[in-house]
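Extended Data, panel c. Modelled sequence:
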Amino acid sequence: MKRRLMDILACPIDKYYPLELHVFEEKEEIVEGVIVCPKCLRWYPIRDEIPELLPDQLRDKKEEIDFLQKWKTKIPEKILREGKPFNLAEE
């Protein structure tokens, strides 16, 4: 994902702008990271350079929990505890 995409992205749920970007791995583009809506605390993974801004009902809980576990040292604590639609406090 290119960084400049953040200039036009809004939360698909509540349309909030601007969103927060947390980069975990970057080459020419952002390879892995997370996009966070500070208003509703929804988080959206970036995997293999693709931001996955899906509505809650289309997200796979196991995949999302695995993503949180993999990057828990780099994801903001508030998202790990209170993020939507899934977080590690539910485990």
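The longest helix spans residues 61-70. This feature is highlighted in the accompanying rendering.
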